[in-house]
Amino acid sequence: MLNIIWLSFFVIAFIAAMFQWLYLGNSAIFEEILNSIIAMSKVTVEIAIGLIGILSFWLGMMKIAERGGVVAWIAKAISPLFSRLMPQIPANHPAFGSITMNLSANFLGLDNAATPLGLKAMKDLQEINPKKDTASNAQILFLVLNTSSVTLFPISVFVYRAQQGAAVPTDVFIPILLATFASTLAGLISVAFFQKIKIYKGIILLYLSAAMALVAALVVYLTQLTAEQLSSQSSLMGNFLIISTLISFLLIAHFKKLMVYDCFIEGAKEGFEVSVKLIPYLLAMLCAIGVFRASGALDLIVDSIRSLVIVIGGDTRFVDALPTAFMKPLSGSGSRAMMVETMNTFGADSFAGRLSSIIQGSTETTFYVLAVYFGSVGIRYSRHAITCGLIADISGITAGIAVCYWFFA
Questions:
Q1: Domain edges within the chain
Q2: CA distance 97 to 136
Q3: Which residue, among 139, 100, 132, has the nearest Cα to 117 in the 3D structure?
Q4: Helices 173-195 and 202-222, interaxial angle, to 10°?
Q5: 171 in Cβ contact with 403 (< 8 Å)
Q6: Helical axes 385-408 vs 137-148, angle rounded to 10°
Q7: Per-block average pLDDT, block size 10, for the chain (409 residues)?
Protein backbone atom coordinates (compact mmCIF):
# COMPACT_ATOMS: atom_id res chain seq x y z
CA MET A 1 0.00 0.00 0.00
CA LEU A 2 2.69 2.50 1.03
CA ASN A 3 4.78 1.58 -2.02
CA ILE A 4 1.86 2.43 -4.35
CA ILE A 5 1.11 5.67 -2.50
CA TRP A 6 4.73 6.85 -2.67
CA LEU A 7 5.10 5.97 -6.36
CA SER A 8 1.77 7.63 -7.15
CA PHE A 9 2.95 10.95 -5.71
CA PHE A 10 5.78 11.12 -8.25
CA VAL A 11 3.85 9.77 -11.23
CA ILE A 12 0.85 12.08 -10.71
CA ALA A 13 3.21 15.01 -10.05
CA PHE A 14 5.00 14.36 -13.35
CA ILE A 15 1.70 14.21 -15.26
CA ALA A 16 0.57 17.46 -13.61
CA ALA A 17 3.91 19.09 -14.45
CA MET A 18 3.65 18.02 -18.09
CA PHE A 19 0.16 19.53 -18.22
CA GLN A 20 1.44 22.83 -16.77
CA TRP A 21 4.33 22.91 -19.27
CA LEU A 22 2.53 21.86 -22.46
CA TYR A 23 -0.92 23.40 -21.89
CA LEU A 24 -0.35 26.26 -19.43
CA GLY A 25 3.07 27.32 -20.69
CA ASN A 26 4.75 27.09 -17.29
CA SER A 27 8.30 26.26 -18.40
CA ALA A 28 9.67 26.78 -14.87
CA ILE A 29 7.61 23.96 -13.34
CA PHE A 30 10.41 21.38 -13.40
CA GLU A 31 12.80 23.80 -11.73
CA GLU A 32 10.17 24.42 -9.04
CA ILE A 33 9.82 20.67 -8.45
CA LEU A 34 13.59 20.23 -8.17
CA ASN A 35 13.83 23.16 -5.75
CA SER A 36 11.09 21.55 -3.67
CA ILE A 37 13.08 18.31 -3.40
CA ILE A 38 16.14 20.25 -2.23
CA ALA A 39 14.09 22.25 0.29
CA MET A 40 12.33 19.18 1.70
CA SER A 41 15.66 17.36 2.04
CA LYS A 42 16.96 20.25 4.12
CA VAL A 43 13.80 20.31 6.26
CA THR A 44 14.17 16.56 6.89
CA VAL A 45 17.66 16.95 8.35
CA GLU A 46 16.63 19.93 10.49
CA ILE A 47 13.69 18.00 11.93
CA ALA A 48 15.73 14.87 12.62
CA ILE A 49 18.45 16.81 14.46
CA GLY A 50 15.86 18.61 16.55
CA LEU A 51 14.16 15.34 17.43
CA ILE A 52 17.24 13.70 18.94
CA GLY A 53 17.26 15.66 22.18
CA ILE A 54 13.57 15.59 23.06
CA LEU A 55 13.08 11.99 21.99
CA SER A 56 16.05 10.90 24.09
CA PHE A 57 14.71 12.77 27.10
CA TRP A 58 11.18 11.43 26.74
CA LEU A 59 12.24 7.85 26.17
CA GLY A 60 14.50 8.10 29.20
CA MET A 61 11.60 9.26 31.38
CA MET A 62 9.34 6.58 29.94
CA LYS A 63 11.90 3.92 30.83
CA ILE A 64 11.72 5.17 34.43
CA ALA A 65 7.92 4.92 34.32
CA GLU A 66 8.09 1.41 32.93
CA ARG A 67 10.59 0.20 35.52
CA GLY A 68 8.73 2.02 38.29
CA GLY A 69 5.58 0.02 37.61
CA VAL A 70 3.41 2.87 36.34
CA VAL A 71 2.47 0.97 33.17
CA ALA A 72 1.69 -2.17 35.18
CA TRP A 73 -0.48 -0.16 37.60
CA ILE A 74 -2.54 1.31 34.74
CA ALA A 75 -2.89 -2.18 33.26
CA LYS A 76 -4.26 -3.49 36.55
CA ALA A 77 -6.73 -0.60 36.80
CA ILE A 78 -8.30 -1.18 33.38
CA SER A 79 -8.21 -4.99 33.31
CA PRO A 80 -11.77 -5.38 34.78
CA LEU A 81 -13.12 -3.43 31.80
CA PHE A 82 -11.51 -5.66 29.18
CA SER A 83 -12.61 -8.86 30.86
CA ARG A 84 -16.19 -7.68 30.10
CA LEU A 85 -15.49 -6.33 26.62
CA MET A 86 -13.81 -9.59 25.61
CA PRO A 87 -15.86 -12.35 27.22
CA GLN A 88 -14.42 -14.96 24.82
CA ILE A 89 -11.06 -14.82 26.64
CA PRO A 90 -10.84 -17.30 29.56
CA ALA A 91 -10.33 -15.84 33.04
CA ASN A 92 -6.68 -15.24 33.99
CA HIS A 93 -5.53 -15.83 30.40
CA PRO A 94 -2.15 -14.20 29.56
CA ALA A 95 -3.83 -12.22 26.78
CA PHE A 96 -5.43 -9.88 29.34
CA GLY A 97 -2.05 -8.88 30.68
CA SER A 98 -0.62 -8.25 27.21
CA ILE A 99 -3.66 -6.26 26.09
CA THR A 100 -3.80 -3.99 29.12
CA MET A 101 -0.03 -3.46 29.08
CA ASN A 102 -0.13 -2.51 25.40
CA LEU A 103 -2.98 -0.04 25.82
CA SER A 104 -1.36 1.40 28.94
CA ALA A 105 1.89 1.92 27.06
CA ASN A 106 0.00 3.65 24.23
CA PHE A 107 -1.75 5.86 26.79
CA LEU A 108 1.61 7.08 28.10
CA GLY A 109 3.14 7.45 24.65
CA LEU A 110 5.50 4.49 25.05
CA ASP A 111 5.63 3.66 21.33
CA ASN A 112 8.68 1.41 21.59
CA ALA A 113 7.13 -0.62 24.39
CA ALA A 114 3.61 -0.59 22.93
CA THR A 115 4.36 -2.30 19.62
CA PRO A 116 6.02 -5.49 20.94
CA LEU A 117 3.37 -5.70 23.66
CA GLY A 118 0.69 -5.39 20.99
CA LEU A 119 2.23 -8.17 18.89
CA LYS A 120 2.45 -10.33 22.01
CA ALA A 121 -1.23 -9.65 22.78
CA MET A 122 -2.26 -10.56 19.24
CA LYS A 123 -0.28 -13.80 19.48
CA ASP A 124 -1.94 -14.65 22.82
CA LEU A 125 -5.38 -13.96 21.31
CA GLN A 126 -4.55 -16.12 18.30
CA GLU A 127 -3.95 -19.11 20.59
CA ILE A 128 -7.64 -19.11 21.57
CA ASN A 129 -8.93 -18.15 18.12
CA PRO A 130 -10.93 -21.11 16.70
CA LYS A 131 -10.49 -19.90 13.08
CA LYS A 132 -6.81 -19.15 12.63
CA ASP A 133 -7.19 -17.29 9.31
CA THR A 134 -10.11 -15.12 10.50
CA ALA A 135 -9.99 -12.34 13.09
CA SER A 136 -11.84 -13.13 16.33
CA ASN A 137 -14.08 -10.62 18.10
CA ALA A 138 -11.42 -9.98 20.74
CA GLN A 139 -8.73 -9.41 18.11
CA ILE A 140 -10.90 -6.93 16.22
CA LEU A 141 -11.74 -4.94 19.36
CA PHE A 142 -8.08 -4.88 20.37
CA LEU A 143 -7.01 -3.68 16.93
CA VAL A 144 -9.67 -0.94 16.77
CA LEU A 145 -8.67 0.36 20.20
CA ASN A 146 -5.09 0.56 18.92
CA THR A 147 -6.09 2.44 15.77
CA SER A 148 -8.19 4.93 17.74
CA SER A 149 -5.02 5.70 19.72
CA VAL A 150 -5.90 7.21 23.10
CA THR A 151 -2.62 8.96 23.96
CA LEU A 152 -2.40 11.33 26.90
CA PHE A 153 0.94 12.80 25.84
CA PRO A 154 1.28 13.32 22.05
CA ILE A 155 4.90 14.38 22.50
CA SER A 156 5.92 13.79 18.89
CA VAL A 157 3.28 16.28 17.68
CA PHE A 158 4.55 18.88 20.15
CA VAL A 159 8.12 18.31 18.95
CA TYR A 160 7.22 18.78 15.29
CA ARG A 161 5.29 21.94 16.13
CA ALA A 162 8.28 23.31 18.04
CA GLN A 163 10.55 22.46 15.10
CA GLN A 164 8.27 24.40 12.75
CA GLY A 165 8.34 27.50 14.96
CA ALA A 166 5.07 27.26 16.91
CA ALA A 167 4.91 29.97 19.59
CA VAL A 168 3.31 27.52 22.05
CA PRO A 169 3.74 23.95 20.73
CA THR A 170 1.43 22.46 23.39
CA ASP A 171 -1.60 24.68 22.67
CA VAL A 172 -3.18 21.76 20.77
CA PHE A 173 -3.08 19.48 23.83
CA ILE A 174 -6.77 19.65 24.82
CA PRO A 175 -8.06 19.59 21.21
CA ILE A 176 -6.06 16.40 20.59
CA LEU A 177 -7.35 14.90 23.83
CA LEU A 178 -10.98 15.61 22.87
CA ALA A 179 -10.50 14.35 19.31
CA THR A 180 -8.83 11.10 20.34
CA PHE A 181 -11.55 10.49 22.94
CA ALA A 182 -14.17 10.87 20.20
CA SER A 183 -12.21 8.48 18.00
CA THR A 184 -11.94 5.82 20.70
CA LEU A 185 -15.58 6.12 21.74
CA ALA A 186 -16.75 5.81 18.13
CA GLY A 187 -14.51 2.80 17.58
CA LEU A 188 -15.76 1.09 20.73
CA ILE A 189 -19.43 1.75 19.90
CA SER A 190 -19.02 0.48 16.33
CA VAL A 191 -17.38 -2.75 17.53
CA ALA A 192 -20.06 -3.16 20.20
CA PHE A 193 -22.71 -2.84 17.47
CA PHE A 194 -21.17 -5.55 15.28
CA GLN A 195 -20.36 -7.87 18.18
CA LYS A 196 -23.53 -7.15 20.18
CA ILE A 197 -21.59 -6.13 23.28
CA LYS A 198 -23.85 -4.56 25.92
CA ILE A 199 -21.79 -1.51 26.79
CA TYR A 200 -24.71 0.07 28.66
CA LYS A 201 -24.56 -2.39 31.57
CA GLY A 202 -22.42 -3.13 34.63
CA ILE A 203 -18.68 -2.51 34.78
CA ILE A 204 -18.47 -1.33 31.15
CA LEU A 205 -21.05 1.37 31.79
CA LEU A 206 -19.22 2.40 34.97
CA TYR A 207 -15.91 2.91 33.15
CA LEU A 208 -17.52 4.69 30.21
CA SER A 209 -19.58 6.91 32.50
CA ALA A 210 -16.49 7.92 34.44
CA ALA A 211 -14.57 8.74 31.27
CA MET A 212 -17.46 10.68 29.74
CA ALA A 213 -18.06 12.54 33.01
CA LEU A 214 -14.43 13.72 33.06
CA VAL A 215 -14.61 14.84 29.42
CA ALA A 216 -18.00 16.51 29.99
CA ALA A 217 -16.65 18.40 33.00
CA LEU A 218 -13.70 19.56 30.92
CA VAL A 219 -16.00 20.68 28.10
CA VAL A 220 -18.30 22.55 30.51
CA TYR A 221 -15.30 24.37 31.94
CA LEU A 222 -13.94 25.21 28.50
CA THR A 223 -17.24 26.58 27.23
CA GLN A 224 -16.92 29.39 29.77
CA LEU A 225 -13.66 30.63 28.29
CA THR A 226 -12.93 33.06 25.49
CA ALA A 227 -10.97 32.04 22.41
CA GLU A 228 -7.71 33.44 23.83
CA GLN A 229 -8.32 31.74 27.17
CA LEU A 230 -9.00 28.42 25.44
CA SER A 231 -5.60 28.47 23.76
CA SER A 232 -3.75 29.51 26.93
CA GLN A 233 -5.61 27.01 29.12
CA SER A 234 -4.87 24.18 26.70
CA SER A 235 -1.18 25.05 26.87
CA LEU A 236 -1.22 25.47 30.66
CA MET A 237 -3.04 22.18 31.28
CA GLY A 238 -0.82 20.31 28.87
CA ASN A 239 2.42 21.69 30.30
CA PHE A 240 1.35 21.23 33.92
CA LEU A 241 0.13 17.69 33.33
CA ILE A 242 3.31 16.67 31.53
CA ILE A 243 5.66 18.16 34.14
CA SER A 244 3.70 16.83 37.12
CA THR A 245 3.54 13.38 35.54
CA LEU A 246 7.27 13.31 34.93
CA ILE A 247 7.94 14.33 38.53
CA SER A 248 5.59 11.56 39.66
CA PHE A 249 7.53 9.03 37.56
CA LEU A 250 10.78 10.10 39.23
CA LEU A 251 9.40 10.01 42.77
CA ILE A 252 7.66 6.64 42.31
CA ALA A 253 10.82 5.09 40.91
CA HIS A 254 12.94 6.64 43.69
CA PHE A 255 10.70 5.29 46.45
CA LYS A 256 10.93 1.86 44.83
CA LYS A 257 14.72 2.06 45.26
CA LEU A 258 15.41 2.27 41.53
CA MET A 259 18.48 4.02 40.18
CA VAL A 260 16.54 6.67 38.28
CA TYR A 261 19.59 8.16 36.60
CA ASP A 262 20.72 4.79 35.23
CA CYS A 263 17.17 4.01 34.04
CA PHE A 264 16.99 7.37 32.31
CA ILE A 265 20.31 6.84 30.51
CA GLU A 266 19.21 3.39 29.35
CA GLY A 267 16.02 4.76 27.83
CA ALA A 268 17.65 7.92 26.45
CA LYS A 269 20.10 5.85 24.41
CA GLU A 270 17.14 4.74 22.31
CA GLY A 271 16.32 8.34 21.38
CA PHE A 272 19.25 8.72 19.01
CA GLU A 273 18.48 5.39 17.33
CA VAL A 274 14.81 6.31 16.86
CA SER A 275 15.70 9.72 15.40
CA VAL A 276 18.17 8.23 12.92
CA LYS A 277 15.67 5.56 11.87
CA LEU A 278 13.10 8.26 11.12
CA ILE A 279 15.32 10.09 8.61
CA PRO A 280 14.81 7.80 5.57
CA TYR A 281 11.03 7.67 6.10
CA LEU A 282 10.72 11.42 6.58
CA LEU A 283 13.00 12.10 3.60
CA ALA A 284 11.03 9.79 1.32
CA MET A 285 7.62 11.15 2.23
CA LEU A 286 8.53 14.84 2.55
CA CYS A 287 10.22 14.87 -0.85
CA ALA A 288 7.32 13.01 -2.46
CA ILE A 289 4.78 15.38 -0.96
CA GLY A 290 6.92 18.39 -1.86
CA VAL A 291 7.01 17.23 -5.48
CA PHE A 292 3.26 16.59 -5.39
CA ARG A 293 2.55 20.11 -4.13
CA ALA A 294 5.11 21.87 -6.39
CA SER A 295 3.59 20.22 -9.48
CA GLY A 296 0.21 21.74 -8.66
CA ALA A 297 -1.48 18.34 -8.21
CA LEU A 298 -2.12 18.78 -4.47
CA ASP A 299 -3.45 22.30 -4.99
CA LEU A 300 -5.84 20.99 -7.64
CA ILE A 301 -7.32 18.42 -5.24
CA VAL A 302 -7.53 20.85 -2.34
CA ASP A 303 -8.97 23.65 -4.48
CA SER A 304 -11.65 21.28 -5.82
CA ILE A 305 -12.74 20.46 -2.29
CA ARG A 306 -12.58 24.14 -1.35
CA SER A 307 -14.84 25.04 -4.28
CA LEU A 308 -17.35 22.42 -3.19
CA VAL A 309 -17.33 23.78 0.37
CA ILE A 310 -17.89 27.30 -0.96
CA VAL A 311 -20.85 26.11 -3.05
CA ILE A 312 -22.57 24.68 0.03
CA GLY A 313 -21.77 27.85 2.01
CA GLY A 314 -19.18 26.36 4.40
CA ASP A 315 -16.02 27.77 5.96
CA THR A 316 -12.96 26.67 3.95
CA ARG A 317 -10.15 27.12 6.48
CA PHE A 318 -10.07 23.40 7.32
CA VAL A 319 -9.48 22.35 3.70
CA ASP A 320 -5.71 22.98 3.71
CA ALA A 321 -5.27 20.40 6.49
CA LEU A 322 -7.26 17.67 4.73
CA PRO A 323 -4.21 16.07 3.04
CA THR A 324 -3.05 14.98 6.51
CA ALA A 325 -6.50 13.53 7.17
CA PHE A 326 -6.53 11.65 3.85
CA MET A 327 -3.09 10.17 4.52
CA LYS A 328 -3.63 9.29 8.20
CA PRO A 329 -5.44 5.94 7.79
CA LEU A 330 -2.93 4.81 5.14
CA SER A 331 0.53 5.75 6.33
CA GLY A 332 1.92 7.04 9.62
CA SER A 333 5.09 8.40 8.01
CA GLY A 334 3.01 9.87 5.17
CA SER A 335 0.60 11.70 7.47
CA ARG A 336 3.48 12.89 9.65
CA ALA A 337 5.24 14.27 6.59
CA MET A 338 1.98 15.83 5.37
CA MET A 339 1.55 17.54 8.77
CA VAL A 340 5.11 18.91 8.62
CA GLU A 341 4.64 20.05 5.03
CA THR A 342 1.39 21.81 5.94
CA MET A 343 3.06 23.64 8.83
CA ASN A 344 6.03 24.45 6.62
CA THR A 345 3.74 25.92 3.94
CA PHE A 346 1.14 27.76 6.04
CA GLY A 347 2.91 28.17 9.39
CA ALA A 348 2.74 26.10 12.58
CA ASP A 349 0.35 28.58 14.21
CA SER A 350 -1.93 28.91 11.20
CA PHE A 351 -5.36 27.31 11.35
CA ALA A 352 -4.26 24.63 8.89
CA GLY A 353 -1.03 24.03 10.82
CA ARG A 354 -2.85 23.53 14.10
CA LEU A 355 -5.57 21.39 12.56
CA SER A 356 -3.08 19.09 10.85
CA SER A 357 -1.38 18.64 14.24
CA ILE A 358 -4.70 17.78 15.90
CA ILE A 359 -5.56 15.29 13.17
CA GLN A 360 -2.12 13.69 13.44
CA GLY A 361 -2.61 13.17 17.18
CA SER A 362 -6.25 12.06 17.06
CA THR A 363 -5.96 8.56 15.53
CA GLU A 364 -3.47 5.87 14.52
CA THR A 365 -2.74 4.44 11.05
CA THR A 366 -5.54 1.91 10.55
CA PHE A 367 -4.20 -0.02 7.56
CA TYR A 368 -0.65 -0.16 8.90
CA VAL A 369 -1.75 -1.43 12.32
CA LEU A 370 -4.05 -3.95 10.68
CA ALA A 371 -1.31 -5.22 8.35
CA VAL A 372 1.30 -5.55 11.10
CA TYR A 373 -0.87 -6.98 13.87
CA PHE A 374 -3.00 -9.35 11.79
CA GLY A 375 -0.11 -10.24 9.50
CA SER A 376 2.04 -11.26 12.46
CA VAL A 377 -0.37 -14.12 13.27
CA GLY A 378 -1.43 -15.05 9.73
CA ILE A 379 -4.96 -13.61 9.75
CA ARG A 380 -6.35 -13.15 6.21
CA TYR A 381 -9.98 -12.24 6.87
CA SER A 382 -10.42 -9.12 8.98
CA ARG A 383 -14.27 -9.17 9.06
CA HIS A 384 -15.51 -5.80 10.38
CA ALA A 385 -12.09 -4.59 11.63
CA ILE A 386 -11.48 -2.17 8.74
CA THR A 387 -15.00 -0.75 8.90
CA CYS A 388 -14.77 -0.08 12.64
CA GLY A 389 -11.24 1.28 12.33
CA LEU A 390 -12.28 3.74 9.62
CA ILE A 391 -15.32 4.80 11.67
CA ALA A 392 -12.91 5.64 14.49
CA ASP A 393 -10.66 7.55 12.05
CA ILE A 394 -13.49 9.58 10.55
CA SER A 395 -14.88 10.38 14.00
CA GLY A 396 -11.49 11.52 15.26
CA ILE A 397 -10.84 13.68 12.21
CA THR A 398 -14.33 15.22 12.32
CA ALA A 399 -14.00 15.93 16.04
CA GLY A 400 -10.54 17.39 15.39
CA ILE A 401 -11.95 19.85 12.86
CA ALA A 402 -14.76 20.83 15.25
CA VAL A 403 -12.50 21.46 18.25
CA CYS A 404 -9.98 23.35 16.12
CA TYR A 405 -12.73 25.80 15.14
CA TRP A 406 -13.78 25.97 18.78
CA PHE A 407 -10.29 26.74 20.06
CA PHE A 408 -8.59 28.63 17.25
CA ALA A 409 -11.21 30.14 14.93
A1: 24-408
A2: 18
A3: 100
A4: 150
A5: no
A6: 20
A7: 77 92 89 90 79 77 83 76 83 76 70 68 88 91 83 79 87 90 92 89 85 86 78 79 86 91 87 73 80 85 89 91 85 80 91 94 78 82 88 93 91
